[in-house]
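User: Hey, quick favor. My workstation is busy. Could you predict this chain's structure for me?
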Amino acid sequence: MSHAIKEPKEDTRSFLGRQVDQTGSLLLVWLITFLLMANLIGKPATALIFSIPLIVAEALVFKKFLRIRRQKKQNQRRLWLAGQKIIKNFKSMDPESEFKPYVREIIAGLAGFQNLRLISKEDNAVDPDKWGIDLVGDYRGIPVAIQCKYPEGENKISPQDIRAFAGALKSEEFKNGLLVTWGEFEPGATRVAAELSRKGINIKLIGRYRLIEMARQSNQDVNPGGQTGLGADFLTAAGKQRTMSLTTLKDTILSSRSKAKSYFSYGLLLYGGYILMRETTKLSLLYLGFAMLNFLLGAGCLSLGRDVEDKDPLASFGSDK
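Assistant: No problem, here it is.
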């Protein structure tokens, strides 16, 4: 959710300037490919013949790269606008009457959560104004307690706050907790959570930008205070567009960066076959051509691909209360 923090930069070049840069980049890639093949084969004419289909493949990959990058920038700006709107709404909301119910709506919309309910002050066994439990529910059959903190001003959630929440979990006999805040965490918060996890109390930390991402994942149309507007509309639209984009990418050869390793491995194997066969048969040139193609696809995956899996923030939660 870094796009909710910093406004994406816009391309200030003219249309002609972009075309010149793109054409120059493509020709440079082709020239490097041709010189490399000519050096390996030792026959410039043959290298030129084999470089022609490669330049066509490079042009197709480059065209797809430009289209995906353009879509990515558009989505980044939509997400930034959505984040700015929601940040504004969160800053103006009432921590007690609006923040906790809204967090409940967000988490209830995430896959795996059931029976999520707000805990009143009277229900809390500890002081709810300081470190009590605000929500309880089940996550895939696992009892989970949730604390919602809305710090004032620039105050951050300290390691002491996390230890206090751990005490509340222990008092209520919970092993798994989620600390959700519209603020940020002080240095050392993650270390304290890791220490508590080793002691059998699992606490997941959710800061403001992760909270925005969770709102997108839960497809919330609701804004704090019961409002509807630009933020929710953009989150929903961006979520749908991202889903469509990811579906398309999964069906292509450049779906994720994890594929780059396979492409590079195959490229090295094919190049090894070329080295072994280049003195005996001209078919070795096919090995070289496919090796270069795999290297290009690997580079394309590194440039265009990404990890498309949404990480489960509660994946390591225990199995009982």
